[in-house]
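ASSEMBLY PREDICTION REQUEST
Request ID: AP-0331
Submitted by: J.K., bench scientist
Number of chains: two
Total residues: 557
Priority: normal
Notes: Please return the full assembly, not individual chains.
Input sequences:
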Amino acid sequence: MKGFRLIHSVALIAGLLFLYVPIGILILYSFNASRLVTVWGGFSTQWYASLLSNQALKDAALLSLGVAMASATIATVLGTLAALALERARPGRAKLLFGGLIAAPMVMPEVITGLSLLLLFVALNVERGAITVTLAHATLTLCFVTMIVQARLATLDRSLEEAAQDLGASPWRVTLTITLPLALPGIIAGWLLAFTLSLDDLVIASFATGPGATTLPMRIYSAVRLGVSPEINAISTLLIAGVAALVVTASLILKREKLIA
Amino acid sequence: MRTDRRARIAALAPLLWLAAFFVLPFLMVLRMSLSDTAQAVPPYAPHWIGFGQIREFLAGLDVEAFRLLWEDSLYLNAFLTAIRIAGTATLIALLIGFPLAYAITRAPKSWQNLLVLLVILPFWTSFLIRVYAWIAILRPEGVLDRVLITIGLTSEPLRLLNTETAVLIGMVYSYLPFMVLPIYAVLEKMDRSLIEAAADLGAKPLTRFLTITIPLAKPGILAGCFLVFVPGIGEFVIPDLLGGSETLMIGRVLWTEFFSNRDWPLASAVAVSLLAFVILPMMLLRGFAGRKETAR
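STATUS: Completed
Returned structure:
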């Protein structure tokens, strides 16, 4: 409390306003009766109703949800394995290299990741569609899962694993019955993160997909290019609400665990 | 020893996955950037078929795409524009992000977690949607124009959409959380007694801030700048939706070469050069951190 002055609250309020006013305006105009996005014509939910009759948009949303679930699951399995490896490995060149490889997709510009995966799929002559997008998203989100699970593993009480080992449990059994259950909040948070990242991705999906498989961000993008429309505001509002619910859930899961520990 | 063996077994699957879907594809981009443009589908003629033809491969390497990249001022300009815009956006994000991070550390402890969550939350909501939100604000007769005209600050529309300013606003807005979080992380761990000691010795607030807070926050500031600058260089969505046709950033050029011009070798050459631009600041940061370790 000491030293919290007027200037600090001004910086806080200004910063948070900058972050939230644009989103607030977007949500507000999704309830606008007028088709003109910037002229207020009264409260209405008609744009949400018109979303329901938009079959192309519904197909895209279903595809995106399916891809997000599948890719998040693959990324969580692989990412958790990588986190276990990084946590257990002795410090050295191999660990450093492995850690670098895991983190690399995080800093790689999306356009490059997308282009390179497309070239791979073309060279292998696989048909591009939902499956290739799933593979691409799993690759992209794996590193984020590793980051979260590793942070969780680092805070675990090692003596629990040692106690189990002293009592005669095999290393695999210790991992399955002690380490993984303790790391579960991190694993769940990692899955949710991978899910939202996949649901959000436009660039990599555009490269990795083929005709016939259009994800929700791709639909929104082509609609946005034609200009603003209250339907985009409505679908955006639904997405924001869904993601916000997921993030708050994830942070509550992590926090509750912290309170218990 | 045993833990190390188990670590290796756990590492195997993710390692294979990343080799197949990250390293191998990038090698294919490298190869593609050295191929001839051809009118076939896929539009390229590879110069390399198998391992037995390494000599032929080396003789047949085609740097045409890279030469074009260097000779046509369009690409060089796109690189420079990308660096300029990403650099400016980084600076503005620092000027907004530092006070915000600093203010969070000064807020009552019970608020801090909530404030950090509030900063992170927009980062999770769709990037595309957050950029879209600015279109409605910045476009002619948009929200900003109407507000400014109503309060009498301006009488004419600002015409901000499709300008470089709009791209800057979009970038600062999208990447601000990346700046705030690392700075908050170092400031939060800072030992307050150092400031108190300086105050006891007679240092004025500004002196304390410049000689203690800023140097101690340096790792966070560097990490934040890096996290804004690096993705900013390759950005596609923001310049495409908020920038005009003259705001050509390199990520957008890559997209156009690939999807509109269907020149895969050229797009790959752009990708390889772009990666060089991304790796350079990373190595500088590494070097900086390494020097600090040895100094310690």
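REVIEWER COMMENTS: Chain A is about 80% helix and 0% strand.
SIGN-OFF: pending second reviewer
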